[in-house]
Specification:
Its EC number is 3.4.21.26. It is an enzyme of class 3 (hydrolase). GO terms for molecular function: oligopeptidase activity; serine-type endopeptidase activity. Keywords: Hydrolase, Protease, Serine protease. The chain is an alpha+beta fold and about 725 residues long. Helices cover about 20% and strands about 30% of the residues. Strands 32-33-35-34-36-37-38-39 form an 8-stranded mixed sheet, sandwiched between helices. Strands 5, 6, 7, 8 and 9 form a 5-stranded antiparallel sheet that branches. Strands 1-2-3-4 form a 4-stranded antiparallel sheet. Helix 9 runs parallel beside helix 12. The longest helix is centred in the C-terminal third of the chain and has 19 residues. It is globular and about 70 Å long.
Length: about 725
């Protein structure tokens, strides 16, 4: 079970598909212009600090020159062919329109070549079952952007739940001006199909809202001095009545500015209506409160025990061993109790899931009468159903193949006619996604509703799983997608992908864009591409312990794991250094930075996207302060002792006189990224160029936020740029 905090983590794990994961705004421009070295007490010279001036003329002039250089070298006919083949996949009109049920309607957000910014739309169940459903267009984002002169990016909708039996009529829409985390929130009338005149409308900011009633919102946003945490998220929450100015709304909840964020939500479930507040201390510690008699009542558990509420239950998931009344619950377990009994101190705790060394709980959801558990067994999915009416009996669902991913979620637990229905998605690296619907209470096999057609010929490819032994003896799994009968002579072009952070798991998913972008291409001697996914520590593949093994001072384990997989590929003669490429984004970009500086002898080329790289200053840039629990605080001398060992920007200094042969490196980011920001990527590239490192290229998109792209065309360009750079260097 994971927290469901309404802010984006430092995650952008996939290099094969787009996600609107993050605006640095001018956060960097206000950062201190110097650092005090915690070891020497001196002020070191940072020759490239001026690149932290986010949109200054000289910084953007440097960016434009680097973009022009990179594009002049890469954007040729071969690049265009790759880009168009990827764009064809992304814009395909026969992909699955995934839906969310609200009342009698099924809602979907859709992009294609005719609607690059997208359509927010809905249909009926009967129509959705058809091959070509009839959609009611609620909002055309392209038309809105044209009418308002702003390149809006749709970032989601939050519905106002009506009284039982009544239709949904209102929603709050989140619109980003550049694909970043900052959004404008506007009230939308579902019946009239337009924005509500004089309705709720909040300016662009990192805002979280929750309906508290038809005319009331809980709002966590920037309301001036003292309202934000050091992580750039809201520190206070206000109750906003319709017609009241935000600055006049009463503050109802606040946290310390050193914490990450505060938010309050209203649970409208009939019979269980309540207001819930969260003090998110850091990524792995939080406090949860219930409003009782106008007082916030703390649900007392250790702060690293995740808390969720569902109807009359409270659920707990500890990150570290949790002992209560003589019973110890292991990290990654799922524990349930009656909420009122727990608050009264009389609860019996029920242990629903206990992980083993090879299993972990990835997510949970609820139908009207059951709990749905998504479990990983050596990084392959298992679906388990829990029946509370039968003393929390567990039964595994027969879902088929290993080395695949399955997802399960409730269709609508509030609908009396289908409250126990679920969605089941299935996918694999070579298996297009299928969407099915079933009922927990039924014995029939879930009915397949929609399937994605194959985007490339996978008949000659196969998927296998392997384990490499890391430096400390730990076996680390990885997936390999390659041609059948692969020649094991060390000459195959291989692309490794990794992440290894924030308890995020890399699981099998269909390689629709990577098929034409990497797998089906041929090198000069006719070889096709091989793709490898590394399930290194720091991720969540084996639960909290797998994650915590690479936290803070143990960060090196994630990098040792990735390097061990690279060596294993070489020892198995799948590839060799000159034919091995690697890619990673966000925290995975930090991983790539440490491959460049710590293991340059293993890789021929690296693509380092939207990365952290200057770990001395990361807490002062964008949302960096919120990741101290993951990496450590460089302003604390004892922390800087270990943080500097995985700061790629500083590790370059150690190699100045060592004659290191660095891999060809593409470093890329987005100007509008307000989660990590582009400045660390800029500085790393500039420093490597200044050192005379050959084959270093930089590219920066102007919009797209932390995802690096705001529409399918931009996504295709981003992916093709990365694939083309890597292919040219390792597929010789």
């Amino acid at each position: 079970m994971s927290h469901s905090y309404p802010y984006p983590p430092l995650i952008n794990t996939s290099d094969t598909q787009a996600s609107n994961d993050v605006d640095m705004g001018n956060a960097a421009a206000g950062a201190p212009a110097s650092d005090i070295d915690s070891k020497t007490g001196e002020t070191p010279e940072d020759l490239f600090l001026w690149l932290e001036e986010l949109d200054s003329e000289r910084a953007m002039d440097w960016v434009m020159k680097q973009n022009a250089r990179t594009e002049s070298e890469l954007f040729d006919d071969g690049f265009n062919t790759t880009r168009e083949s990827i764009l064809t996949v992304l814009d395909a009109t026969d992909k699955i329109p995934m839906v969310t049920k609200r009342g009698e309607h099924y809602y979907n957000f859709w992009r294609d070549s005719q609607n690059p910014k997208g359509l927010w739309r809905r249909t009926s169940w009967e129509s959705y079952l058809q091959e070509d459903p009839e959609w009611e267009i609620l909002l055309d984002i392209d038309a809105l952007a044209k009418a308002e002169g702003l390149d809006w990016v749709f970032s989601g909708a939050q519905m106002l739940r009506p009284t039982p039996g009544e239709p949904y009529t209102r929603a709050l829409l989140k619109l980003s001006p550049d694909g970043g985390d900052q959004v404008r929130i506007r009230e939308f009338d579902l019946s009239a199909g337009g924005f509500v005149p004089g309705g709720f409308d909040m300016p662009v900011a990192k805002t979280n809202v929750s309906w508290a009633g038809p005319d009331t919102l809980f709002v966590a946003t920037d309301v001036g001095e003292g309202s934000l945490t050091r992580s750039s998220y809201a520190r206070t929450v206000r109750r906003l009545q319709r017609g009241t100015p935000l600055d006049a709304a009463p503050e109802i909840f606040a946290i310390d500015e050193s914490h990450v964020l505060a938010y309050v939500s209203h649970d409208p479930t009939p019979g269980f209506e309540r207001d819930v507040a969260h003090d998110v201390i850091d990524f792995y510690n939080s406090k949860t409160f219930l409003l009782r008699d106008n007082q916030w009542v703390y649900i007392e558990v250790p702060t690293d025990v995740g808390v969720s509420l569902h109807r009359g239950w409270v659920l707990f998931s500890p990150q570290t061993p949790w002992t209560r009344e003589g019973v110890t619950y292991v990290p990654g377990s799922l524990v349930l109790a009656d909420l009122e009994e727990f608050l009264a101190g009389t609860a019996t705790l029920h242990e629903i899931f206990v992980p083993t060394p090879s299993t972990s709980l990835q997510s949970i959801d609820f139908t009207a009468n059951y709990i749905l558990l998504n479990v990983l067994q050596d990084v392959s999915s298992q679906i388990v159903i829990c029946d509370p009416a039968r003393d929390f009996e567990l039964r595994a669902m027969d879902i088929g193949s290993p080395l695949h991913s399955f997802g399960i979620s409730a269709v609508d637990d509030q609908d009396p006619e289908c409250g126990d229905d679920f969605w089941l998605t299935s996918t694999g690296f070579l298996t297009p996604t299928t969407l099915a619907r079933g009922s927990v209470a039924a014995t029939a096999t879930p009915q397949a509703i929609k399937s994605t057609p194959a985007r490339f010929d996978a008949a000659d490819f196969e998927v296998s799983q392997h384990f490499a032994r890391s430096d400390d003896g730990t076996l680390v799994p990885y997936f390999q997608v390659s041609e059948r009968g692969l020649r094991l002579d060390g000459q195959n072009p291989v692309l490794m992908n990794g992440y290894g952070g924030f308890q995020a798991s890399l699981t099998p998913s269909y390689l629709g864009a990577m098929g034409p972008g990497w797998l089906t291409r041929r090198s000069t001697d006719g070889r096709r591409g091989t793709y490898v996914v590394a399930n290194i520590r720091g991720g969540g593949e084996y639960g909290p312990n797998w994650h915590r093994a690479a936290l803070r001072e143990n960060r090196h384990r994630a990098y040792e794991d990735f390097a061990a997989i690279a060596r294993d590929l070489v020892s198995r003669r799948v590839t060799s250094r000159e034919h091995l490429a690697a890619t990673g984004r966000s925290n995975g970009g930090l991983l790539m930075g440490n491959m460049i500086t710590g293991y340059p002898e293993l890789f021929g080329a690296i693509s380092c996207g939207v990365p952290l790289l200057d770990m001395r200053r990361y807490t002062r840039l964008a949302a960096g302060h919120s990741w101290i629990a993951e990496y450590g605080d460089p302003d604390v001398p004892s922390d800087w002792e270990f943080v500097q060992t995985f700061s790629p920007y500083h590790r370059l200094d150690d190699a100045l006189d060592e004659g290191v042969e660095y891999p060809a490196s593409l470093i890329w980011s987005a100007t509008s990224d307000d989660r990590v920001g582009p400045v660390q990527a800029r500085k790393m590239a500039a420093k490597m160029m200044d050192m005379g490192v050959p084959e270093v290229r930089y590219h920066e998109s102007l919009d797209g936020g932390h995802a690096g792209a705001s529409d399918n065309g931009a996504t295709a360009t981003m992916l093709a740029t990365s694939y083309e750079f890597l292919w040219r260097h390792v597929a010789r």
